[in-house]
């Protein structure tokens, strides 16, 4: 197996590299290659599960009679599920997650949500997207504000990217940074351009730097695309995570990736009817795709640089409805995956005997997770982004 | 040039050529056996006669692609050359082409974009003359310009191969002309054709030739062994690509084609009609295939004949067992789309929690028919700013007495939900009426005209007056009440003469070109406007749109039949076309 | 931004008259068309060279009657055929208008005002409403700013954008007044914003139209910007216009738009323009002063702006002397960060160097490549014919057309490569 350093060296040697850039400012090109913008920096991947994931059938309280009584057709039995404690098990179709959990690379943060959620999709999702800072009515999302903090026009970096085919969800809306929507690493590959080297003023130099950076990115991505693309299942989410892995491997400098499962709009995890088969399929896509992503990153020892976090706008009701589905609930688990995640269960499983309108009660404000990722993982100032201070939940290893 | 463009070019070339007798031997003998695709015209005259008719030529000239080509400066040069050759050969171009290629034509496509074109002339003398004219022309032109002549010749396997420049090479062998892009390709072509009797002798080609039948005037042969390896084709063979609706419509057509080693499209010329018949050696879908929902279980069952309504544009009749289809969703579309989950949520509400597969889908018989027809608008109710056709689906219920009211309830819930959602966005909603037609009450939802402004430019939504009618065991879901009434009439007529299903056929699509042209013409202004968004100018747009309308009128009816057992695709065009009318009506 | 070198205001705003030291040339003609239009075709540049700067400006500022006829025609074209919720077609028509208009400065200024007070169809979800908003901007884009502002505080699309479709007496909505005060005065006290929100009460958006519901209006006295009275939304606009800071803010913003975004202009430099503008808020007069000035044609302005994606793409398209398909173009521009009618915030696009990051530069180069190839944008593009028409070698022609410079080293004679090589230079990223 090639190490990352060897790979970078091979990349730098590639003859094609300079063929187009004969007259590019050598210094700019060389420095861009010698020190790729994102080398060795931490990376956050945020995965939105659209529609409101049923936390109770994802992390299953198999030992709780209330669970079995309330879900005559949807309940999962312990025998097939993957036990993660004497009370809880992961859904039978989540073998990949079970392996990550056993390896200490999956943290399950329980009882997370927005205390004020009114349980309608756009409203609840908007809370997760904006993080509800003060003053109210923000025009940007929390990831957009993080991107603005990471943005430095002098270095022409690319702080964040959305990967997926749906319109970009609001979380990445930024005031200044243009966050691209990518469907493949090829979207950052561009035809050759000469950055030019005659003395220019500050603005022209900036334009040159951005051109060089785009060209250098493009070359590195093309080289990564020639290499083994990793083994992923044939799901859209898996394709998107593969794209993210390739961009990480190409050192495109992107610190925040945002992606989605469920389609972004109607449907997705919003299983009001005939939930059983559809939810199984979604969880399998989720688990198998993330497991493949983790395996792929471990190949180049990149897994320690990456943390992936999932979220959904709310959990679902304990009782199933007349259509063999569930309604909009409240708290749900958040998954955090990474080489430096603090694997294991974090927080208690909210009681099924003490519900809020048939939904599990929130005991962990979602912004505590954001704050920990912003402060401890990305090295940013979470108070400025979240408009308040939130205690970490301890899902990352020190 | 893409493979598809090449195929079209090949078909176009073939269309421009030949009149007289069938050659004693096939020009495909001169094609190497490894062709990815090949086109052979056995009887050029039969193919060409209708194409060379004045009306046909006038109509084809309206095609936007041809219009664009003739506007290019190269085309003028080409015309000059053609005139020169006509004078020298002493024949007008259609005659000359026929004499030069009337003995048969073949075009083969090979890897690395190689093409080999073979024409058997009827008049060997003229072929020689043409060769000499072009050969001398190339040399003279170079001499005038003071450049070395690009025209060269070379001996290949005992034959003389000529090249007039870097993009041309040919060999004359008696009446036969073999043409390639360059001398290297020619060498490969001549060697390839010598081995084992060329493409004409390959077992697949012979099987295809037998399958298209002796009455075929020409054949397009596709070598699926080779084509399946191309990624583009592999994708095209899976048109549904996880999309439930596409999976339902295509019913495994792509997978079936994927089992073929060859596919051939036979060209059959009939008086005033042209048929393309698709044959292949594909393995028919088995009863265990996920696509078995389109397999009529008995030998005599299949899709019903299409319904006929006034102003009909298109009709589609399918044999699809919806219950079987939905029961196989795990195999058909393992990755759930958000649309599917939303659909199930909604159906759960509309059908009050009934199981979608077993309690809803199972209520529909597998005979499903669709109709699209032009709408009539009157001054009283107003005309929308652009006019969409009305469309409807006709199903048959297994247990109409028990299920009719369930459907009515579901439909009214859906209309109510649509009104409610529109209301949330402060948009006008529907009003539900219960008119009676042929003594049968049915339901119509219409938008109130209270919000309408200019009756000549009504909002697009006034194209829709959703209707639900359930005469007998039938269920009609229509986008307008007008079409629902027409369908109730059509079904009443059908009851007098119960239809026989087309045995083992699972799809019949029929289009009426004249009606399509009329529908397009009704929206001419709108289409011109839309073309401006594509960067066109008003003037150029008008000609393009009129060309398109003219072409649509060219096809009187087209009929596509897909069968299960033999994967057969049939297309029929009627001609000569009503050119003048279509092109001149404003 | 670094403060600009001190210019003598009198020299700076005097009319530019070319002389031996500052000759009128192709570079300045290109500069003028980049700022006062969306780039130029070769015949326009040639005519500008012949006419000189001031005469060219006469045409750019006050085109003939055909401009009015053109706009009437396009008002009809762009009218949505129904209550469309998506504005992508309207966006495409706007781009067509920018490409084809005989009065490009009007569209340039409409775009400026869109960025000043940015309605967002993500909130409005109504093409007819957005069309009325755009027509309002266009009507006053080069007119009286007081009339524009009076129209803006009566615009349904803006109320929807500010999440203020219902301004109840009991629950005043601060979004719109906050914009009104902050965008013109730079800052505003929470007290003023609260009071101004009361003045906005009573306005509701119903069926896409703005309606005043008397009983929901707070008729009590409000204290706003030092004045007290039973104010309404129009009064707040009037109070804002009476503040000297408003004229100063707009002059500064327009300076950034038309002259330079690299250097912060000195207060003394802008003072004469502010004084003139504050008198009658005549936008055309202000724009005219700026565009005709010595400063505008000086190195202090030359390539001192980063092209927005719209300017980048249209700069290429204008040179091609043909229009292109603007539905895909609108999508491509959205991908580059400028989704017209869907701005990131109500303050529009931050612009400047924020336009350029490695993804957007790669995207610009991809767009250039696709546009010049014809791609999904044009079926009729014929670069060879264009080069032939103007009778110059392709490398020289495109370098002159697009960057008014010598061809970049190693440009290939193939017209498409030559055109791409010209626009792929970093200089072309700048306006």
Notes on the structure:
The complex is a heterotrimer of chains A (398), B (586) and C (431). Chain A is α/β, with parallel strands linked by helices and 398 residues long. Chain A has one domain (41-173, 233-386): Alkaline Phosphatase, subunit A, CATH 3.40.720. In chain A, 34% of the residues lie in helices and 16% in strands. Chain A is built from twelve helices and 16 strands. In chain A, strands 1, 5, 6, 7, 8, 9, 12, 13 and 16 form a nine-stranded mixed β-sheet that branches. A three-stranded antiparallel β-sheet of chain A has the order 2-4-3. Chain A has a two-stranded antiparallel ribbon with strand order 10-11. In chain A, a hairpin with a 5-residue loop joins β10 (316-320) and β11. In chain A, α3 packs across α8 (202-226), α5 crosses α10 and α9 packs parallel to α10. Chain A is globular and about 75 Å long. Chain B has 586 residues and is of the alpha+beta class. Chain B has a domain at 3-201. In chain B, the strands form three sheets. Chain B has an eleven-stranded antiparallel β-sheet with strand order 4-5-6-7-3-2-1-8-9-10-22, sandwiched between helices. Mean pLDDT of chain B is 85; it is low at 1-24 and 578-586. Helices cover 55% and strands 4% of the residues of chain C. In chain C, the strands form three sheets. In chain C, strands 1-6 form a two-stranded parallel sheet. Chain C is mainly alpha-helical and 431 residues long. The radius of gyration of chain C is 22 Å and the shape is globular. In chain C, β2 and β3 (209-212) form a beta hairpin. Chain C has a domain at 162-300. In chain C, α2 (26-36) runs parallel beside α4 and α12 crosses α13. Chains in contact: A-B, A-C, B-C. The interface between A and C is large, with 48 and 42 residues.
């Amino acid at each position: 197996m090639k190490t990352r350093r060897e790979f970078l060296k091979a990349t730098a040697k590639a003859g094609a590299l300079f063929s187009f850039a004969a007259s590019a400012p050598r210094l700019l090109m060389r420095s861009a290659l010698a020190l790729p913008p994102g080398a060795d920096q931490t990376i956050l991947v945020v995965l939105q599960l659209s529609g409101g994931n049923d936390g109770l059938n994802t992390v299953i309280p198999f030992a709780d009679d209330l669970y079995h009584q309330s879900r005559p057709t949807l309940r999962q039995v312990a025998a097939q599920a993957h036990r993660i404690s004497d009370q809880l098990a992961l859904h039978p179709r989540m073998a990949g997650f079970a392996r990550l959990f056993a390896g200490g690379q999956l943290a399950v943060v329980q009882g997370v949500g927005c205390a004020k959620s009114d349980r309608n999709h756009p409203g609840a999702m908007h809370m997760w997207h904006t993080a509800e800072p003060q003053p109210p009515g923000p025009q940007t999302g929390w990831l957009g504000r993080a991107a603005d903090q990471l943005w430095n026009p002098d270095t022409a970096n690319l702080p964040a990217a959305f990967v997926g085919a749906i319109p970009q969800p609001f979380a990445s809306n930024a005031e200044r940074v243009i966050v691209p929507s990518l469907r493949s690493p090829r979207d950052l590959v561009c035809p050759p351009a000469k950055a030019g080297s005659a003395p220019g003023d500050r603005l022209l130099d900036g334009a040159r730097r951005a051109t060089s950076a785009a060209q250098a990115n493009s070359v590195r991505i093309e080289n990564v695309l020639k290499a083994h693309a990793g083994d992923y299942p044939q799901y859209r989410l898996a394709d998107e995570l593969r794209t993210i892995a390739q961009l990480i491997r190409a050192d495109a400098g992107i610190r925040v990736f945002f992606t989605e499962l469920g389609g972004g709009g109607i449907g997705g995890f919003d299983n009001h009817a005939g939930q059983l088969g559809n939810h199984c399929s979604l969880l399998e896509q989720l688990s198998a795709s993330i497991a493949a992503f983790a395996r792929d990153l471990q190949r180049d020892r990149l897994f320690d640089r990456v943390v992936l976090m999932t979220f959904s706008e709310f959990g679902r009701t304990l009782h199933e409805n007349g259509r063999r589905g569930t309604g909009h609930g409240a708290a749900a688990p958040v998954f955090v995956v990474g080489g430096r995640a603090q694997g294991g269960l974090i927080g208690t499983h909210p009681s099924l005997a003490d519900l809020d309108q048939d939904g599990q009660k929130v005991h962990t404000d979602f912004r505590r997770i954001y704050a920990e990722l912003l402060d401890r993982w990305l090295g940013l100032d979470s108070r400025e982004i979240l408009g308040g201070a939130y205690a970490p939940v301890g899902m990352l290893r020190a | 040039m893409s493979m598809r463009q090449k195929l079209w070019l090949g078909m176009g070339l073939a269309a421009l050529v030949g009149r007289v007798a069938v050659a004693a031997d096939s020009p495909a003998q001169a094609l190497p056996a490894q062709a990815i695709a090949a086109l052979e015209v056995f009887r050029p005259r039969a193919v060409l006669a209708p194409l060379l008719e004045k009306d046909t030529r006038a109509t084809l000239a309206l095609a936007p692609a041809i219009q664009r080509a003739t506007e290019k400066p190269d085309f003028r040069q080409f015309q000059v050359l053609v005139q020169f050759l006509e004078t020298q050969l002493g024949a007008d171009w259609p005659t000359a082409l026929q004499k030069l290629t009337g003995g048969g034509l073949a075009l083969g496509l090979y890897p690395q974009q190689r093409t080999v074109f073979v024409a058997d002339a009827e008049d060997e003398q003229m072929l020689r003359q043409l060769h000499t004219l072009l050969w001398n022309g190339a040399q003279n032109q170079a001499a005038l310009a003071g450049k070395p002549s690009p025209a060269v010749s070379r001996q290949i396997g005992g034959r003389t191969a000529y090249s007039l420049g870097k993009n041309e090479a040919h060999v004359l062998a008696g009446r036969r002309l073999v043409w390639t892009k360059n001398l290297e390709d020619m060498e490969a072509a001549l060697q390839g054709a010598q081995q084992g009797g060329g493409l004409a002798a390959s077992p697949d080609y012979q099987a295809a030739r037998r399958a298209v039948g002796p009455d075929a005037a020409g054949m397009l042969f596709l070598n699926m062994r080779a084509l399946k390896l191309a990624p583009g084709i592999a994708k095209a063979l899976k048109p549904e690509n996880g999309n439930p609706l596409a999976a339902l419509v295509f019913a495994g057509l792509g997978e079936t084609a994927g089992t073929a080693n060859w596919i051939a499209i036979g060209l059959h010329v009939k008086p005033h009609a042209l048929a393309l018949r698709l044959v292949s050696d594909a393995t028919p879908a088995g009863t265990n295939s996920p696509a078995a929902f389109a397999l009529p279980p008995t030998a005599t069952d299949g899709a019903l004949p299409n319904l006929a309504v006034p102003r009909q544009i298109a009709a589609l009749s399918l044999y699809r067992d919806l219950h079987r289809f939905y029961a196989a969703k795990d195999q058909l579309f393992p990755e759930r789309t958000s649309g599917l989950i939303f659909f199930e949520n909604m159906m759960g509400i509309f059908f009050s929690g009934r199981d979608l597969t077993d309690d809803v889908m199972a209520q529909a018989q597998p005979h499903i028919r669709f109709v699209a027809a032009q709408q009539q608008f009157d001054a009283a109710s107003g005309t929308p700013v652009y006019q969409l056709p009305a469309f409807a689906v006709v199903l048959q219920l297994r247990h109409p007495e028990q299920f009719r009211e369930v459907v009515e309830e579901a439909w009214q819930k859906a209309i109510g939900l649509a009104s409610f959602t529109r209301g949330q966005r402060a948009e006008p909603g529907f009003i539900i009426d219960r008119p009676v037609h042929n003594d049968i009450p049915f339901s119509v939802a219409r938008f109130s005209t209270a919000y309408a402004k200019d009756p000549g430019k009504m909002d697009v939504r006034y194209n829709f007056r959703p209707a639900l009618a359930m005469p007998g065991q039938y269920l009609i879901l229509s986008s307008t009440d007008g079409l629902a009434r027409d369908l109730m009439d059509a079904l009443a007529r059908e009851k007098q003469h119960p239809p026989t299903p087309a045995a083992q056929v699972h799809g019949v699509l029929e289009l009426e070109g004249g009606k399509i042209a009329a529908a397009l013409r009704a929206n001419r202004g709108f289409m011109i406007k839309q073309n401006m968004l594509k960067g066109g100018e008003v003037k150029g747009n008008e000609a393009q749109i009129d060309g398109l309308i003219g072409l649509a009128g060219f096809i009187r009816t087209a009929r596509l039949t897909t069968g299960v057992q033999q994967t057969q695709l049939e297309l029929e065009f009627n001609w000569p076309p009503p050119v003048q009318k279509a092109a001149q009506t404003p | 931004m670094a403060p600009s070198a001190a210019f003598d205001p009198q020299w700076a705003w005097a009319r530019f008259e070319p002389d031996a030291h500052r000759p009128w040339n192709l570079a300045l003609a290109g500069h003028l068309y980049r700022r006062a239009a969306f780039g130029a075709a070769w015949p326009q540049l040639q005519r500008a060279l012949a006419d000189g700067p001031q005469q060219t400006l006469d045409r750019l500022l006050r085109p003939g009657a055909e401009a009015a006829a053109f706009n009437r025609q396009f008002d009809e074209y762009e009218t949505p055929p129904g209550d469309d919720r998506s504005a992508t077609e309207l966006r495409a028509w706007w781009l067509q208008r920018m490409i084809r208009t005989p009065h490009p400065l009007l569209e340039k200024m409409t775009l400026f005002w869109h960025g000043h007070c940015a309605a967002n169809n993500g909130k409005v979800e109504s093409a007819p409403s957005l069309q009325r908003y755009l027509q309002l901007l266009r009507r006053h884009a080069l007119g009286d700013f007081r009339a524009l502002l009076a129209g803006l505080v009566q615009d349904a699309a803006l109320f929807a954008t500010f999440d203020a479709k219902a301004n109840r007496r009991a629950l005043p909505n601060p979004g719109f007044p906050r914009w009104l005060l902050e965008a013109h005065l730079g800052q505003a006290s929470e007290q003023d914003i609260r009071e101004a929100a009361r003045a906005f009460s009573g306005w509701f958006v119903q069926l896409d139209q703005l309606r005043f519901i008397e009983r929901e209006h707070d008729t009590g006295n409000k204290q706003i910007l030092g004045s007290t009275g039973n104010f309404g939304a129009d009064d707040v606009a009037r109070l804002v216009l009476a503040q000297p800071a408003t004229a100063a803010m707009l002059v500064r913003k327009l300076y950034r738009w038309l002259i330079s975004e690299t250097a912060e202009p000195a207060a003394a430099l802008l003072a004469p323009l502010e004084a003139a503008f504050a008198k009658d808020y005549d936008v055309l007069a202000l724009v005219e002063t700026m565009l005709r000035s010595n400063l505008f044609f000086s190195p202090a302005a030359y390539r001192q702006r980063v092209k927005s994606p719209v300017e980048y793409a249209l700069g290429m398209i204008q040179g091609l002397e043909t229009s292109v398909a603007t539905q895909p173009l609108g999508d491509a521009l959205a991908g580059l960060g400028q989704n017209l009618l869907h701005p990131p915030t109500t303050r529009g696009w931050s612009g400047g160097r924020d336009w350029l990051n490695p993804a957007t530069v790669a995207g610009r180069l991809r767009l250039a490549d696709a546009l010049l190839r014809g791609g999904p944008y044009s079926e009729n593009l014929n670069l060879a014919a264009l080069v032939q028409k103007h009778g110059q070698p392709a490398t020289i022609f495109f370098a002159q057309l697009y960057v008014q410079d010598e061809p970049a080293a190693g440009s290939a004679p193939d017209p498409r490569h030559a055109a791409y090589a010209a626009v792929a230079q970093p200089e072309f990223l700048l306006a």
